[in-house]
Amino acid sequence: MKNLLFIVVIIFTANFTQAQWGNDVRLTNDPAVSALSYTRNSSIAANGDSIHVVWADGRDGKGEIYYKRSTDGDINWSNDTRLTNNDSSSSNPTIAISDSFVHVVWNDFRDGNYEIYYKRSSNGGANWSADVRLTNDSLWAYCPGIAVSGADVYVVWRVDYDSPNVEVFFKHSTDGGTSWGNETRITNDAAGSYNPSVSVSGTNVHIIWEDKRDGNSEIYYKRSTDGGLSWGTDTRLTNNASLSNYPTSTVSGSDLYVVWRDLRDGNWEIYFKHSADAGSTWGPDTRLTNATGNLKLSTVAASASGVHIAWTDDRNGNKEIFYMYSLDEGQSWSNDTLLVNNNVTMSEGPSINLSGDAVHLIWKDKRDGPNGEIYYKRNPTGNLIGIKESDILKNDINIYPNPASDNITISFSNTELSKMSISIYNSLGIEIKRFDEKELLGKSAINFSTESFPTGVYYCVLNYGTKKISRSFVVLR
Predict the structure, then answer these.
(1) What range does the domain containing 406 cover?
(2) pLDDT of 288-299, one tens digit each?
(3) Out of 83, 149, 218, 336, which residue is the most buried by the measure of CB atoms under 10 Å away?
(4) What DSSP character marks residue 8?
(5) Same domain for 181 and 82?
(6) Is the model's pTM score more than 0.85?
(7) Which of 250, 248, 195, 185 is nearest to 217 (CA)?
(8) Contacts of residue 257, Cβ cutoff 8 Å, sequence gap at least 6
(9) What is the DSSP secondary-structure string of 226-286?
(10) Which residues contact 42 (CB under 8 A, 6 or more apart)?
């Protein structure tokens, strides 16, 4: 029975998180090239039903930074908003949000060499501030990344000294981007340090990059535990004779996740690494893919125990977007899922983000002709059960019997019953039963019939204010 239960859970969990991916939505429509950042830093950010996207666009003769948003969960999208207006190239935009503040950084050639620029919106993308130049150097400042925690905004980038010396720099604002501190040099070695990524949780700031100091590209890590005031030592995360590059990272509480592409297996594969204690110690390298394709550039997002990864893959002869997920902090993973399949055209450079239960994805696509357009799709319930039990310390929920046949009992503890509801979802993410606050008031358990439920996996979600606990249960006939 236990083996059967395990098999059923795996099959139906995969169906649950994959079946709800919506249609591809074309966000741009012009004859020039539209492109996302070629670094793995995110070009999409979401909060609730608000979705924000940035990209570089050549429709004006030179590359300019454009922005688009949806405030109703992808039902409607705003017109394209041009964020930059100068005679030189602006590219590699990346975005982060905190409440109604939207922050964007990019590299810009208006000063005769590439510099890092920044601008923000304080009202959810409706209006925008003037461009703010963050760097001022005769050397190229390139490939920025951004992370935000409340009013603290953190930016990293690379500075190109005389080849091969490339270093990573950092800058911090404590007032939501109104003013900025001095630059901090993060790396200092004679080799190249490339493609930095920054993530933040509370006062823990994490920077990941690829580094050639060891003779080949390896993934390195550095952290600050005091909001960027001081920094620890460089930590080498990979150690093999081949290439490890294009890293990206994401953080959820004390859980830090890193993905990159790696050539140690003879062809490029996606690898994953997890720290459960804010970067103090690290788990082993985990190989996530096993395919003959070589163009694997990945993106990662996490929320509680849910980790979601998308990447470009040419295993089928052309560039396509693949996806996989873990709902247990990277201990186990779904199979690869081909999300974007255009047969003979190119789909590449995905960027992924989460908001609540939803998974959001954008990428560059050439299905409409030789120019690239920006496309979007979402899974509204893809992160439904990616919720850590520790997020709600004073609440618990148990289901028995599990598996069930005719009846099931859900027991729970709650210190504030008036704020609680319970929803039952099927494997397609459709709510099939709900117990509201009035039905649960004064109770510690509910019992209901499952006679009408087909065999499969179901999800019981306890909604408590803005937080949730989720448990799965199986109905067997």
Answers:
(1) 388-475
(2) 999 888 778 899
(3) 218
(4) H
(5) yes
(6) no
(7) 195
(8) 249, 250, 251, 272, 273, 274, 300, 302, 307, 330
(9) STTSS----EE----SS-EEEEEEEEETTEEEEEEEE-TTSS-EEEEEEESSTTSS----E
(10) 94, 95, 96, 299, 301, 351, 352, 353
